[in-house]
Amino acid sequence: MSKILIVDDEVQIRTLLARMMELEGYEVCQAGDCRAALRQLELQTPDVALCDVFLPDGNGVDLVLSIKKAAPNVEVILLTAHGNIPDGVQAIKNGAFDYITKGDDNNKIIPLISRAVEKAAMNARLEKLEKKVGQAYSFDSILGESKSLKDAVLLAQKVSVTDVPVLLTGETGTGKEVFAQAIHYSSKRARQNFVAVNCSSFSKELLESEMFGHKAGSFTGALKDKKGLFEEANNGTIFLDEIGEMAFELQAKLLRILETGEYIKIGDTKPTRVNVRIIAATNRNLPEEIAKGRFREDLFYRLSVFQVHLPPLRERAGDIRLLAKAFVENFSAQLSRPVTEITPDFLATLELQPWKGNIRELRNVIERSLIVCEGEQLTIADLPLDIQNAHYEQSDEETPGSFELSAMERRHIARVLEYTKGNKTEAARLLKIGLTTLYRKIEEYRI
Question: Alpha carbon of 77 to those of 49, 120, 190, 270: distances in Å?
Answer without folding.
Answer: 6, 12, 29, 43
